[in-house]
Amino acid sequence: MPSKMSLPCTTLTEIEGRCRVVSELPGPWGRLPMLGDVLALNPRKPVQSMAKLSESIGPIYELRFGPKRMVIINGAELADTVQSDSQWEKAFGPPIRRLRMLGSSGLIVASTNDPQWGAAHRVLMPGFTRESMRLYHPVMTDVVSELIRRWGRCSDPIDVAGDMNTVTLEIMARAGFGYSFANLDEPSAGTNMPVVNLMLDVLRYASRPVSIELLDATIGRAARRRNQLNVAELQRLAEDMIDECRPDVAGAPDLLQRMMETSDPETRQPLARSVVRDQVLTFLIAGHETSAGTLTFALHLLSHRPDVVKRVRQEIDTITGGDPTTLAYEQVAKLRYLRRVVDETLRLWPVAGGFFRRPKQDTELGGYTVRRGEWVYVNLIGVHRDKHIWGSDADQFDPERFVRDPSQERQPGAYKPFGIGLRSCIGRQFALHEIVLTLAHILYAFDLEPDLKYRLAVDELVTLKPAGLRMRLRSRS
Ligand code: HEM
After folding, report:
1. Domain boundaries, the chain
2. Looking at the predicted structure, is the pLDDT value of residue 272 above 50?
3. pLDDT-based confidence at 271, cuts 50/70/90?
4. Whole-angstrom distance, CA of residue 276 vs CA of residue 103
5. Spatial distance between the Cα atoms of 154 and 148, rounded to a whole number of angstroms
6. What is the ipTM for the molecules in this complex?
7. Best residue among 342, 418, 425 to mutate for probing ligand 1, ranked by most atoms within 8 Å of CB
8. What separation in Å is there between the alpha carbon of 448 and the centre of ligand 1?
9. Residue 325: which pLDDT band, with cuts at 50, 70 and 90?
């Protein structure tokens, strides 16, 4: 029998006082000297290729890029292991790290130890309570109603992702910052809203492959310059919003008024203007792109499922008596079937893609050792389609999965579209309310006619989104 020392690919590790042999993590074929696993991933679709790789390698594997190792997990049980905030913390992978160019104290990109993150987090959290959500509801309704009126006059197929970006950005700006980019009722408020294009350009630059980043100093100079100009323009826009912010007299501050008028309850200090500006940009980008992607996926899936749309309309009839334009704040939470549709959409297409964690100490993950500080990427496509949890039809769209059955409680890590722990999404309730409300209005007003030639292709611009989806809408009235 060979000794432990002669076994290939093994290391010894001490875990919970037991000494055990742990195999080295598997990885993809074709690793290049120096460069590592660059050929294993489609650089334009890293999240989808990581999920694909897990089909051949297994739910846990490593990718190496130069000296850096990244552990990828694709299963619900493994995702469970990285939940604890006392043992794991947020890590910042390439696209999120690059978004620091917009402002380093933004909630998404700042480190948890950064005092600015703590201060902004504490000041903003009350902006997402039920009371605050109640204030955003009429604003959301106004914006969506404007879109419905414009679509009602439009006979051409619509650019779904473009219009969803417009509607969610406008909701974020009006509800969060008392600012309006456009009245969506106007014919000109179509898919080419300049600020949406500006943000998409910045996201495109942030999600460019590492291999292209190497060219920044040479042929990538022009792109870098354009990105700097885009970032400067967005920062100017955020400054304008701050300048235009008026004091809250009604005792119902929006997010911007809250940041301008409230001190950090812990330090009693107000937020610095630069910190406020970083949050405005963070919320404009994080608060619209993800919701827009989810709405776009939902409309794509629903356009092929008239049976589901029919049930959604029956539910709206029951709750509102047949007029969704009167949908009140409390009624949105009662649209339970529609909420299941949204949950299922986010299961199949978790628009954030995934998130990075790192252990605070050397630790065990799925029988392998992960060293303190090493990056672990939780690939949500893999986790949310884990057949051990979701069944052999995990790739199918079935909102019934989310009917609550206490006897079949899933493990906590199995469904995490909004992230984990302390650094999970602060805008979760905002997003769910806005998405359910928007879908209720759209599905009640229009029949969705899919382009039967369209095959779903998913772009990755930091977040996931259907590419080139167009759809014809038929007014039901
Ligand atoms: C369907 C829509 C959304 C999804 C799927 C989503 C998902 C996520 C995820 C996974 C994270 C954690 C990222 C990480 O760990 O690196 C996150 C963080 C965050 N999200 Fe969302 N999000 C959505 C909508 C929103 C909205 C509407 C807002 C604002 C109103 C928002 C604001 C934020 C912020 C500020 C953070 C950073 C929180 C922190 O670390 O302090 N998100 N989101």
Report:
1. 24-100+353-416, 105-344+420-475
2. yes
3. very high
4. 10
5. 10
6. 0.99
7. 425
8. 29
9. confident
CA of 431 to the centre of ligand 1 (A): 9
pLDDT grade for 406, boundaries at 50, 70 and 90: low
Domain 105-344+420-475 -> CATH class? mainly alpha
Ligand 1 pocket residues where CB is under 6 Å = 90, 96, 107-108, 121, 282-283, 286-287, 290-291, 294, 351-352, 355, 417-419, 423-427, 430-431
- Given the CA of residue 434, which atom of ligand 1 is nearest to it? 27
Residue nearest atom 21 of ligand 1, based on CA coordinates: 425
Please tell me which residue, 210 or 153, carries the higher pLDDT value.
153
Q: How confident is the model at residue 22 (pLDDT cuts 50, 70, 90)?
A: very low
d(CA 161, CA 164): 5
64 residue type, one letter: R
Whose CA is closest to atom 11 on ligand 1? 425
Query: How far away, in angstroms, is 107 Cα from ligand 1 center?
Result: 9
Task: Pick the atom of ligand 1 nearest to 417's CA.
Answer: 5
- For atom 17 of ligand 1, the residue with the nearest CA is 425
Percent of the chain with pLDDT over 70: 92
Distance 164 CA to ligand 1 centre (A): 17
Q: What is the CATH number of domain 24-100+353-416?
A: 3.30.43.20
Distance 211 CA to ligand 1 centre (A): 27
Q: Which atom of ligand 1 is nearest to the CA of 435?
A: 1
CA of 427 to the centre of ligand 1 (A): 6
Q: Are 412 and 319 in contact (CB under 8 A)?
A: no
The model's pTM is 0.93
